[in-house]
Amino acid sequence: MTNSESVRIAENVGEQPPWWRWGPYLSERSWGTVREDYSPNGDAWRYLPHDLARSKAYRWGEDGLAGICDRYQLLVFALGLWNGRDPILKERAFGLDMWEGNHGEDVKDYYFYLDNTPTHSYMRYLYKYPQGEYPYQELIRENQRRAGSGAEFELLDTGIFKDNRYFDVEVEYAKVSPDDICIRISAHNRGPDAAPLHILPQLWFRNTWAWSEPRGPIPTIRLLKKAGVYTCLLADSSELPPLPGLLFPYQLGKRYLYADGDCTPLFTNNETHSQRVYGGHAANPSPYVKDAFHRHIINGEACVNPAQTGTKSCLHYRLDIPAGESVQLTLRLTPTAMQQPFADIGRVFSQRRAEADTFYEALHPPKATLEERRVQRQALAGLLWSKQVYS
């Protein structure tokens, strides 16, 4: 049976399949992985733990929540969150390892891959974010106390979700074309009281320039426009040479990120905060480093770039969401400069969701029940969301 998604699949051929140029190729965590382990003893978990992840620039693979990137991960979009109480800006999944009492490595966040299509023309992701202070130390202490004996101590066991005091943060993507992506972020307050939520859509370049001597060419992200209608960031890598090591030239050029609503653009660089990671008087290549948004928003430090340019950026939304209500943010990541970037976004989301429904209806076994169809669709979404870049 021919449908819109099967037509896109048929178009997805050649060295650079067009509909796979962008997708969910971003891990929820890259800290503690062997690819980012440069230690002399090969102890990846203790060389780059979660506590250093916000401050150390990765080389081979970025991480983030509900994120997307191009297929070689030069440019990344992902979500940052803060509930006004956490000691850490929530930018990536937190987890424990066997050294901390777990039976093995285990993420202690709750996120769900709800929907996805083979060409990533439509994607949906859910993250459950507590409204109270995230119990990092309690999870570590209690799992260490249990020392691998009996059940692991999970986030739900801490009582952090009592009285439904959490946000459902849902992120949807709908492609207009292979390179033009509409983004919708919805935050639902499931608790009994109004609660603050900071939402930080982030756009940044993977650090491809710091690993040679002299350092390689550096791309830029800058504020292009902040008007009453929208804010626009321009990510420009057009001056960079093609990515080395491939059999064909690969460049991104320019990408525009449009965002609606009242937000504050912030800028820093995707550079290691050397003093924090290595200690002493280690020199930073830039005064603006990877953990600047965490330090600026939570600690009030003047550590973001006032010139509004860098290799890492975010759009800071400060919200107060009444009990039982929700807010919705709309963005668009595209290679095209636009005067009205949000004019047809509602139609695009409706169309791509309907096309995903049609595609999966043709895929389900004819005698499958409604529940079985839901299970199959979400299982396939999990496989598709789990794609990752390996450089």
TrEMBL record:
Domain of life the protein comes from: Bacteria
One biological process term in Gene Ontology: oligosaccharide metabolic process
GO-annotated molecular function: Glc3Man9GlcNAc2 oligosaccharide glucosidase activity
Stated name of the protein: Glucosidase
Species of provenance: Methylovulum psychrotolerans
